[in-house]
Design goal:
This protein is an all-alpha fold. Helices cover about 50% and strands about 0% of the residues. The protein is built from 14 helices and two strands.
């Protein structure tokens, strides 16, 4: 009997080869997009110790620096993904993200990242990205201030671009945010309502400038009056004064210790920022705030999971991007 063309051995072999090529390509693509905790196991096994040594020295010198390094990771990931774009300096032919409204005169810790990069380069030259350094430094900062630890997924590469417009677009929720805006901004980068609430708990450490909470302490009604009055002594109502840059702890109870007291503050209407207190204001997130206020272990566990998810936002991997020699400029 004569074989039909559709069942010929040659055409079947070609079809199988084509399917194998497509499958291999798909697998390569999925592998390239993956971060892992052991990415530097062979290429730079000392990277984590190198980062921690510099972060430990910086936090020992100034506790607030831990919060600043953690915040760098947030602001990096929410614009273009976790790609180190937040670190790029402006030049005559390039504009970075540092002068954007949410970042200008606000972000800190760039010099510490420089020192970490120098230390890491001394143990393995040209291997570790600045984006990964920011992610590792954020974890180490939390741990050094008494918070939970986690295995940081690494393998990111550094962006060859930045987005001033993206940083100014509202992607980074302002301290005046409503609850719906917070939910929408986190949802836009793939993070849930629970992620948003628990990551807001990072405000258990660090300080905020008067200009970011002035509206709350003078105008909001869902605020403890004694708490507001005490903040007013350090933050006058008049705008444009030098005291606009005065700072106050985001968590007035344990400002230098990473714990769940931030949520307890919200229950007492003592959130410093408007965007803090909206999490507990007869809304959809009240139950989460109450749960974390009562259970510090639940906060730690969910915070770790949310930080890992945030670190997965649109990383550059494989052949994308580059490994910068200097975190402040492209190669």
């Amino acid at each position: 009997m004569k074989q039909s063309p559709s069942s010929s051995p040659i055409s079947s072999t070609i079809m199988i080869k084509c399917l194998l090529v497509i499958l291999f390509t798909m697998l390569m693509g999925s592998c390239e997009a993956q971060l892992s905790t052991d990415f530097y196991k062979k290429a730079c096994p000392k990277v984590f110790a190198a980062v921690k040594s510099v972060v430990a020295a910086a936090v020992a010198e100034e506790k607030r620096m831990g919060a600043s390094l953690l915040r760098l990771h947030f602001h990096d990931c929410f614009v273009q993904g976790c790609d180190g774009s937040i670190l790029l300096d402006d030049t005559s032919s390039f504009t970075g993200e540092k002068t954007a409204g949410p970042n200008n005169n606000s972000l800190r810790g760039f010099e510490v990242i420089d020192r970490i990069k120098s230390k890491v380069e001394s143990v393995c030259l040209g291997v570790v990205s600045c984006a990964d350094i920011v992610a590792i430094a954020a974890r180490d900062s939390v741990v050094l201030l008494g918070g939970p630890s986690w295995e940081v997924k690494v393998g990111r590469r550094d962006s060859k671009s930045a987005s001033l417009s993206g940083a100014n677009s509202g992607a980074l929720p302002p301290p005046t945010s409503t609850l719906s805006n917070l939910i929408n901004r986190f949802s836009a980068v793939g993070l849930s309502v629970r992620d948003m609430v628990v990551l807001s708990g990072a405000h258990t450490i660090g300080k905020a400038r008067c200009t970011t909470f002035k509206g709350r302490i003078y105008n909001d009604t869902n605020i403890d009056p004694i708490f507001a009055k005490k903040r007013q002594t350090n933050c006058p109502f008049t705008n444009g004064t030098k005291r606009d840059n005065n700072v106050d702890p985001l968590d007035h109870k344990t400002p230098n210790f990473f714990d769940n007291s931030y949520f307890g503050n919200l229950l007492q209407k003592k959130g410093l920022l408007h965007s803090d207190q909206v999490l507990y204001n007869s809304g959809a997130t009240d139950s989460l705030v109450e749960a974390y206020a009562k259970n510090g272990q639940a906060f730690d566990k969910d915070f770790v999971a949310a930080m890992i998810r945030m670190g997965d936002i649109a990383p550059l991997t494989g052949s994308k991007g580059e490994i910068r020699k200097n975190c402040r400029k492209m190669n």
